[in-house]
Amino acid sequence: MNQFSQRIFVAGHTGLVGSAILRALRRQGYTNLLTCSRAQLDLTDQAQVRSLFKRESIDVVYLAAATVGGIHANNSYPAEFIYSNMAIEANVIHEAWRHGTQKLLFLGSSCIYPRLAPQPIPEAALLHGALEPTNEPYAIAKIAGIKICESYNRQYGTRFRSVMPTNLYGPGDNYHAENSHVIPALIRRLHEAKHSGAGEVLIWGTGEARREFLYVDDLADACLHVMSVSEDCYRSVTKPMVSHLNIGSGEEITIAMLAQLVAQVVGYSGRLVFDLTRPDGTPRKLLDSASLGKLGWRASVTLARGLQETYHSFLRAEQAGSRQQPARALDPVSRRLRGQFQPAPSLAHAYADMRVPY
Ligand SMILES: NC(=O)c1ccc[n+]([C@@H]2O[C@H](COP(=O)([O-])OP(=O)(O)OC[C@H]3O[C@@H](n4cnc5c(N)ncnc54)[C@H](OP(=O)(O)O)[C@@H]3O)[C@@H](O)[C@H]2O)c1
């Protein structure tokens, strides 16, 4: 079969990552793409997932559907984070195997590595240390997803691959005041400060923590690259029980420099004031992406360009009046979960050493 006519299911196509994977597939000429809205298909429902795989003859799956959120959401909905992510992974991966799907890509995340992992973080660091307590239920579920893929590969010879992206940003991100990651949070706050004429904006922490960021279209490109390499190539840089690949840009930046860069892009000329009463989180978080480099992939979008593209898409959505991104930002987690789960009572006392969510 011509690879461009393969039936490809992108699960989570409305999300930051899934929408970028869909764009990348279309750009590369894939036409036989399958997407389902959550109203059509709840991936936590085993019967619905089974019926989809029975009905459709799916060759390849990109599993970018997940319950994702910042520290506040992780603390408020730990049951939902562990249950829904485990259910989605178990349902999709198992049904993919049952129905003979040839290939599947599972998305992990750099935040599921141990809290005190060596820097830059090698793939082998997974499960070699205690997890960050604030997102432990989420991390356990995502680690389970990687291990489900590995186990089916080992027992049934499937070709299910996993990737571990660094912090992502780009069009379609979540701009919620409490639940967003650092880049969308900065874009929104500095944009609002520019329009309200605020003379200064508070930034959490000292600004000295260093982080790595990857533009989401680069991530999507990397995902397609990982899926395109032969099994021999993939095996040459992974192991049966360390089967995931890190995806990072390899570039680090301090939060202070990042805030200055976002201010430039947004056109905010007020003062950036660092709130030293807030935690910095881990001083450095960088992935070791050498294995992916051996497969011939490198990031191509610089942070400056990626931030400009992201801000333009934020403005386009705002100007179009659809407020698509801010709408996604209206607390996507609690919007999704309303009526299903009760938030946990405040766990603040249990997280005296809480880390910021980036
Ligand atoms: N964002 C990052 O910085 C980052 C970094 C590293 C790794 N990742 C990984 O990338 C993956 C995707 O993250 P994201 O940032 O793209 O998340 P996102 O923007 O919140 O998108 C999640 C997607 O999953 C769908 N979904 C969730 N639960 C579902 C269900 N029960 N049934 C059907 N669809 C469901 C959502 O649909 P609705 O639109 O209907 O809600 C949405 O399309 C995750 O595995 C995450 O760990 C993300």
From TrEMBL:
Any keyword Aminoacyl-tRNA synthetase? no
Per its record, the protein catalyses: GDP-beta-L-fucose + NADP(+) = GDP-4-dehydro-alpha-D-rhamnose + NADPH + H(+)
Which positions in this protein are listed as binding NADP(+)?
12-18, 107-110, 142, 165-168, 181
Metal-binding listed as a keyword: no
A GO BP term here is:
'de novo' GDP-L-fucose biosynthetic process
Q: Which UniProt keywords apply?
A: Isomerase, Multifunctional enzyme, NADP, Oxidoreductase
Q: NAD-dependent epimerase/dehydratase domain location, by residue?
A: 8-229
Question: Which Enzyme Commission number(s) are on file for it?
Answer: 1.1.1.271
List the pathway annotation.
Nucleotide-sugar biosynthesis; GDP-L-fucose biosynthesis via de novo pathway; GDP-L-fucose from GDP-alpha-D-mannose: step 2/2
Q: Which InterPro entries match?
A: Epimerase_deHydtase, GDP_fucose/colitose_synth, NAD(P)-bd_dom_sf
> Which family would the database say this protein is a member of?
Belongs to the NAD(P)-dependent epimerase/dehydratase family. Fucose synthase subfamily.
Q: What is this protein called?
A: GDP-L-fucose synthase
Q: Which organism is it from?
A: Duganella guangzhouensis
